[in-house]
Design goal:
Layout lengths: L11 E6 L2 E10 L6 H18 L3 E11 L5 H17 L4 E8 L4 E10 L15 E4 L5 H9 L5 H12 L3 H9 L4 E4 L4 H13 L2 E5 L9 H6 L5 H10 L3 E3 L5 H7 L8 E5 L4 H11 L4 E7 L3 E5 L4
Parallel strand pairs: 3-4, 8-12, 9-12
Antiparallel strand pairs: 1-2, 2-5, 3-5, 6-10, 6-11, 7-10, 8-11
Helix pairs in contact: 1-2, 3-4, 6-8
Length: 308
């Protein structure tokens, strides 16, 4: 066992031979959008991200689902279809799974991946001077809350849904190509929560520039009205002791940095000499990447009120 319960990471890793390791993860959640097909696709993309974050390639998946007894069969079928088609986009089959009855729908995947053990990327490993890169815009949790309260526009919901459905495969390939020193995916613990895990494991600090953070359309508008999921305040309470904000950032801007994400992007640290080439290659390939900060020697997180 290379990666297990000793240090929290995105997936379990078991070495079978000197040049082969198996990577296994499981993720599922309740509906985040109204469209059942999109919900299934988002849940599948989210589960696959753990495999990509570890530097592995997915090879197969299994469904895991809880279905209300009164849920129409065609809705369940659409959820499963969304997951299966997203898995097919990733180049893998959904080879079975398990379903139970429950009062609230839940869906996700067990995903199995394979990799050379030497290509493993973990949460720890960031070094002072490395640059911080993010592969998806933030704010999905805020938009989802706006959807539940009928406060988000159709265009904002569509943009957030498309982002959450997007695979992190291309970003993961670039992380490997440009020697990322640490990688994780941004989900329920928020940008700052997952960054705190990375910084702690690497015994370094992360400094973000607020103006460089990318936001989904509508996220800042809703946040300014304090439209947040409850998890944002849980994350703030837990991670704020390790976080320092520059003066001039509003309360809503600070909470926004703690807002949970669903099927968010990869957060990676890259040697400074590789950043320019990485961003140029990403742009040429049509892959969205943002340079949002740097790794510092001082422990903890620092959110600066300036540009990079």
């Amino acid at each position: 066992m290379i990666v297990g319960l000793d240090v929290a990471d995105d997936a379990a890793v078991y070495r079978i031979s000197p040049d082969l390791a198996i990577v296994v993860t499981l993720d599922f959640f309740t509906p985040i959008v109204d469209d059942p097909y999109a919900y299934g696709a988002i849940a599948a993309a989210n589960a696959l991200s753990d495999i990509y974050a570890m530097g592995a390639r997915p090879i197969m998946a299994l469904n895991i689902a809880a279905v209300p007894k009164k849920l129409p069969m065609h809705i369940t079928a659409e959820i499963m279809r969304g997951g299966a088609e997203k898995a097919r986009e990733a180049g893998i089959p959904v080879a079975g799974g398990h379903t139970i009855q429950d009062d609230e729908p839940k869906y996700g995947l067990v995903v199995v991946g394979a990799m050379h053990p030497d290509r493993l990327t973990r949460k720890g490993g960031a070094r002072a001077g490395d640059q911080i890169i993010l592969s998806k815009a933030l704010g999905a949790g805020v938009i989802a809350t706006g959807l539940k309260r009928d406060l988000a526009t159709e265009a904002e919901i569509a943009a957030a849904t498309a982002s959450m459905m997007q695979l992190n495969a291309a970003a993961a390939d670039l992380a490997q190509r440009y020697s990322a020193t640490a990688v994780t995916d941004v989900t329920g613990f928020s940008l700052l929560g997952h960054a705190c895990e990375m910084a702690s494991q690497g015994k370094v600090g992360f400094a973000f520039d607020f103006s460089a953070l990318p936001w989904l359309p509508g996220a800042e508008r809703l946040a300014a009205d304090f439209i947040f999921p409850g998890g944002a305040f849980d994350n703030q309470r837990y991670f704020s002791p390790h976080t320092r904000f520059d003066t001039g950032l509003h309360d809503w801007q600070q909470v926004l940095c703690f807002s949970p994400e669903t099927s968010g992007g990869l957060l990676m640290t890259v040697p400074p000499q590789n950043v320019s080439s990485l961003l140029k290659t990403a742009a040429a390939q049509g892959v969205s990447l943002w340079h949002i900060g740097e790794v510092i020697a001082e422990p903890g997180l620092h959110i600066r009120n300036r540009s990079l």
